[in-house]
C-alpha cells in the first residue's frame, strides 16, 4: 500500500471593510447600522479604539456583516475604530457618532 502526499495550501483573503460612514442616531431611539466587509470567512469583529455610545453594541449580523445596535442613552461625540479579522489579516475603519 502506498500513500500519496498532497500539499494543501490554504488561501485566506484578509477582510476589507467597505462601509465608510454610519448614520447618526438619537438618544432614546433604537439605532442599527450595518458594516459590510469582504474576505474569507469566518470574520470576527471588535472595537479596537475608542468606545461606542453607551447602550450600543457591535454584533455579527452574518458571515460578511456586523451591526451596531441598541438604544443610545447618553448624548456626546463618540469616535471608535471597528476591526474585522480573519486568518488572512485584518481591516480597520474609524467612525464617529454624535
Description:
0% of the residues lie in helices and 47% in strands. The chain has 98 residues and is an all-beta fold. A four-stranded antiparallel β-sheet has the order 1-2-5-4, with no helix packed on it. It has a three-stranded antiparallel β-sheet with strand order 3-6-7, with no helix packed on it. It is elongated. The termini are far apart.
Condensed summary:
The chain is mainly β and 98 residues long.
Produce the secondary structure layout.
Blueprint: E1 16-17, E2 31-38, E3 44-50, E4 56-60, E5 65-70, E6 78-86, E7 89-97
Antiparallel strand pairs: 1-2, 2-5, 3-6, 4-5, 6-7
Order of helices and strands: EEEEEEE
Over all CA atoms, what is the radius of gyration? 18 Å
Major beta sheet, strand line-up? 1-2-5-4
What is the number of helices? 0
Distance between the termini: 69 Å
Helix content: under 10%
Q: What can be said about the biggest beta sheet?
A: 4 strands, antiparallel
Structural class: mainly beta
Residue-averaged pLDDT: 92
- Low-confidence segments: none
Shape: elongated
* Share of β-strand residues: over 45%
Total E-strand runs: 7
Amino acid at each position: 500500500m502506498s500513500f500519496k502526499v498532497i500539499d494543501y495550501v490554504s488561501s485566506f483573503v484578509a477582510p476589507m471593510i467597505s462601509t465608510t460612514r454610519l448614520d447618526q442616531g438619537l438618544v432614546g431611539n433604537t439605532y442599527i447600522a450595518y458594516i459590510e466587509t469582504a474576505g474569507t470567512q469566518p470574520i470576527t469583529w471588535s472595537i479596537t479604539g475608542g468606545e461606542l455610545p453607551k447602550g450600543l453594541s457591535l454584533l455579527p449580523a452574518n458571515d460578511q456583516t456586523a451591526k451596531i445596535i441598541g438604544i443610545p442613552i447618553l448624548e456626546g461625540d463618540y469616535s471608535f475604530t471597528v476591526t474585522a479579522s480573519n486568518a488572512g489579516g485584518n481591516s480597520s475603519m474609524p467612525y464617529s457618532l454624535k
